Amino acid sequence: MTAMLGVIMIARLHAMYQGSRTVLLFLVIIFLAVNIACVVLAAIALKYMVAGKFYMLSCRTQLIGQTPEEGILSGVHMCGYSYEGDVQLLVSMVWMLNTVWEVLALCLSVWIAVKHFRELRRLGPSTGSTIGDCFRVLIQSHVLYFAR
Q1: Closest residue by Cα to residue 81 from 106, 38, 49, 111
Q2: What integer is the mean pLDDT of 102-130?
Q3: How many helices (H) and strands (E) does the chain have?
Q4: How confident is the model at residue 11 (pLDDT cuts 50, 70, 90)?
Q5: Among 23, 25, 71, 85, which is disulfide-ready with 78 (CB 3.0 to 4.6 Å)?
Q6: Would you list the DSSP string of 84-107?
Q7: DSSP helix/strand/coil, 52
Q8: CA 136, 138, 140, 142 torsion: positive or negative?
């Protein structure tokens, strides 16, 4: 799902930058690097969870594994997971890499939008109504994407 959204974002940014091959190449390289790194980190984390001791206490308080962690806060049973190794660090790294990709896409779309609106203001209201309308739709959909 994330990969499909990334491809859609690349296509939209490529269109916003008027089909620039440089921007397309830059986005594809960054996108592939981030996703390959995320897959590798997730595979390492999965190895720790499968090969190492992975304990889980289900919310019905049935024991799966050997030594679960259960916290009781204000009379409410809280279920938790215990991992061996640096699984939490690896999961955090995956989130950070995806956040870097999202922020990069956001910055590129804001940059081209600001540049476009400055150009429209400089040229006056009589120019570029069709192109401006199409560009406005792209920008609005970008805003909806990042607002989710």
Answers
A1: 49
A2: 78
A3: 4, 5
A4: very high
A5: 71
A6: SSSHHHHHHHHHHHHHHHHHHHHH
A7: coil
A8: negative
